[in-house]
Each structure stands twice: as structure tokens, then as C-alpha cells.
Amino acid sequence: MGYTFLAAGTSVPDLMSSVIVARQGFGDMAVSSSIGSNIFDITLGLPLPWFLWSIIEGGKGIDVISNSLNFSLLLLILMLVSVVIIIAVCGWRMTKGLGFSMVVLYGLFLTLAVLNSRGVIGGID
Amino acid sequence: MLGVGSRFKRSAGARRTHQVLRLGCFGAAAVVLAVFSLLSASDDGSHGGVLSGGGASSTTRRRLTEDGSLYPDDAFGKEGMKKGAIMLHVIGVMYTFAGIAIVCDDFFVPALEVLVEKYKIQDDVAGATFMAAGGSAPELFTALIGVFIAKSNVGFGTIIGSAVFNVLFVIGACAFFSKEILVLTWWPLFRDCCWYTFDLLMLYVFFRDEHIDMYESGLLLVFYLCYVLFMSQNSRAETFFKKTILRQKDFVATTRHDEERAEKKAQAISPAAPSKLSQVSPGPGAVTESALARTMTPKALERSSTPRALIRKESKRIIKSDSSSKNPGGGDDDDDDGGIDLDWPDELSGKIYFVLLCPIMFGLAYTIPNCKKKEHLWPVVFIESILYIGFFSYFMVGGPRRSARSSVSRTR
Fold it and tell me: Whole-model pTM above 0.90?
């Protein structure tokens, strides 16, 4: 739960720069950068600290906690699929309806995160 | 350095939309961060009234504070976190927000524009690599702090939260704030989704034993290198995919060479005829995609065709050469000389805005060069922008203690 909001804080530069380029008419650039940010997070943001740690520790690995990995991955894949479906349904145009559906989905995710932190459903963080 | 007299003056209208953009971004994210601040500030039951508005129950609060300060106390201390202090906190967050907005708007995005225009990198490629790397630098810093200062890993939760925010909220906000309805092309989305799914699967495989070996983290880094290399060959990959796999016989890819030829042709077009702009794209270097055929107006054509950077550049050249013409392409209010506008504004709202933000504005204007005027300095501008973004984000999420201690709470 806490991380949900911490993450929103660290993603503000992504939000700002994407909105700015979208206002200049570069829709593909905005969408690519938001998915590209996730690729960057997973393949550089996560492993780089681990890798540096391993080098310092002389080749040892690092223990990580992944008690709800399956649920999280399922959530991410579902999110990606729903984004593609929404974009296709809106005819590959970034309409206000598309924006609204995305924000509603984000609200849904936040609700899930809150429910999760209250222990109603099994865990995101 | 940034002489007032030499600066390109924006029109009042352009200036206003500039502010509306920033204030809109503020509003959207301030709501999120206000909830965040309220949740983080609550350490006892006394703020129940405030919190019920944030959609969290008392159970949530107790859990958040009990399990070892997910949100550590900030400068005000736990006792001092009364409503007034919360307000100060929110104001501080909004101020750093403004800082990030100014860095992105006046330095980071212009550096990307220079990159796209000068080096003829396709805009979606620049978006997925340079822009994504710059915008996600705070996440990287957080992860580094987590591992090296807190001696723990920040965990999967940050990635989930950030991923969902990046995709759903950011794309949603782009759709809301764009000036016209933008047409997307399928290739960039398809390409990025494939890579993302692949990376997630790899992460799943490596995470299964709850232990990341050196070769596993190394492999993930190699995947990022592969992604960047793939992106550098994007147009070839696109051609291969569309011609060989989809058997689109009519697909003609844009290469640098083609764009150069198209540019030469474009230069021959009379500057006095902006309506001819649309003729640039069906030229020799154009993509004959179905998406292109669907768009009807020249403006839409301008947005959806591949050599967009070229057309933008061309339309700017026309605007500059013909001073009497009024922004023919629409959304041109950001096409100024780059850098921060340090002129004293005319309207009252502009003046308030100027006075409030002048420490940030002057600080940035005198420490980052203007890459619109000195194009060769774009790497300096790019790196400095990332550092400033990291700096502001660091304050926004509450400094090192917050990120470090929230990680400590995850150690077993």
C-alpha cells in the first residue's frame, strides 16, 4: 500500500514529461515512454543495485522477498492486456474516453491496494 | 546568459496554456500526494476525520504505522504532525512538483527534442529509451538507496505501483491533457508490450527461488542492453516484421537516408504555403501504413506519419521565416527558444506564479545551459535535468530517511 503511493511520487517526472510531449502531438512518444519506463525499471532499476551488491560482496547473490509475486505478475499482465484492449477499442486514438477508462482502472488498482493492505484480499505489497 | 532582450517572447495565450498545463499536472498529482501525505502523517487515531476522506480505514492506519514506519516521520516529527504541518507538507510537495514540472518542460523535453530533430531518432524510440531512462531515474536512485543504505531490497511493491501508475495514470493523463486527439500507431505499442512481457517472465523465472544470483541480475541488465540495441535498429526491425512476417508488400520504412531526401524535398517547398506541409509525408521517405490512410486532415497526417520530427522542424522553419503567419500547425506554444522565460509577466496570475517560483526558475536558468540555442550541449542538459529531477523527487518522497527506512521495514 505504502509503496503504491511512494511509486506515484517517483513517477511524477514520467507523468510530467509524457504529458508535455503529448501536448506537443507526440502520442507514440508518450505511450512508448510510459511502457519503456517499466522496462527500464525491471531490467535496470531492479537488477543494477543487485548486481553492484553482488560485485561488492564478491559474487554472492542477494535474497529477495517475493511473497506475492504470482499475484503481482498476474496484475501487471492483466493491466497490460486491458490497456491494449482499451486502445484498440478506442480505434488507436487517444480520446477522452480512453483517458477516463485508464484513470478508472487506476482507481480500481488503488482500491485493490487499499483492500490488500486491510487484509481483505491476498497481498500486493 | 539568458538576456531578457534576446529572448523569444511568448504570446499571452501561449503563456497561459503553459501555466494551465503545469497547474493541471499539479492538481492531478497533488490529489494523489495529498492522500499520500495524510496517510503518512497519521500516527494516532486523532486524525480520523481527515483520513476518512482519503478512503482509508483506521485498520489501514494502524497497520501502516505498526509494522515499522512504512512512512517515517519527517521534519515536523510525529508529535508535530498536526493539520497545519500536514498543510505545510502538502505545500512543500507541490513546490517540488513545480520544480519537476519546470525541469521537464524547459530542459528535459527540449533536450529530447534536440535529440529527435538533430540526430533523426524516431520519437517513439527516443521516448522508450532516453525519456524513459530520464523519467525513471528517481526509481533507480530509490532502489540504489534501498540496497546500499538500507541494506535491503526495495521490493516488488514499488515496481508494481510504479508500473501501474506509469501505464494507466500517465497514458490516461496524456489523453486528457493533449490538445487534440492523438493517433497512435500499433508498432511501437506492440514492440514495447512484447519486450515488457518478456522481461516480466524473465523476472518471474529469476525470482522463483527468492534469491538473485549475480548471473541473474547480470542477465537482466543484458536484456536492457538488448532492448536498447533493438531500439537503435528499430526501423529495420519494423521493416523486417511488417514485410517478412505480416507480408505487407506496400510497407516502405523510413531510414535516415530517406528522411534526408525527404528533408531536401521539403526545403524546396515555399515557406509561404504551410498547407503544403502535408505533401512532405507522402514523399519518397514516407510510410504507407493503414494508419496513415485513415487520417484525413493535413494536421492529423502531420501527427501520424513517421517523419514527424522532420515535419515539426519544417513547420517551425516556416513559422520563423514568415513572421506574419500565426501558428498554422496548432500546438506550437512550446516551440520557443527553450529555457525558462524570465520576463516579468503581464497578467496577475502570471505574476503570482513568477514570484512564487522565481527561486527555482532563476536557479535552474543559471545552472543548466539552453540546449535550443546550443544544440551540441544536449547531453549536458539531459544529464543535468536527470540530476535535478532526482534531486526534486528525493525531496518529494521525503528524503533519504523515508526511502531507506521504508526499506528497512521490509528486512526479515
Answer: no
